[in-house]
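We read letters as residues; the fold follows as tokens. Both lines appear below.
***
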Amino acid sequence: MNTGPRISSYEWGGGREPLLRFGPEEGPVVALFLPLFEEANRTRAFGVSLLRALARRGIGGVLPDLPGQGESEIATAAATLADLRKAGVTVGATHVIAIRSGALLAPDRPAWLLSPQTGRELVRELTRVSGAPLDGDLVEVAGNLLSRVLLNDLQGATHVAGRVVRLTSDPQPADLHVDGSPLWRRAEPDNDPALVQLLAADIESWLATCAG
């Protein structure tokens, strides 16, 4: 089986964006929504490992770059929450999995969420990272130039509903708590192979429940 990744793309109405495909293209296909901004860099290798693990279980997956994120030609400063969500809807998948603030972008489909954030929690985190109030029409946070429109929209944003999985170090309510490392807090990109296998097994069971 060709587990991938295979380079592809998708169109969302505002242009064409890159996309990676994993595993079969028929049957259940999950779209992975990474966290926004710097956390996406820290968790991308982990996300790719998770999609590879699902592909080995016969589950197809896609990893899209959304407008203003990853390899998108749209500047981060020009990205809006509406465009990010519009693009998410057009990604071809039957189910979604999301990490952290990626849950704010996921379309209303059966969803599996790892440590999801509300928009208010994300803005609070960005303020902490910045070390100063997020004032002005354009705000730079950890090398990302963000618009006031996007920040305002994020402030009131809620994430899609779904199965919620959190780390045991996170006291917030969840359907499942698991042992693992909060890779989104690492100084550099990293991975957690044991956590990947644990989560892949849970996603496989969840997909069977969705189908069932």
Q: What stands out?
A: Residues 68 and 75 are 5 Å apart (CA to CA).
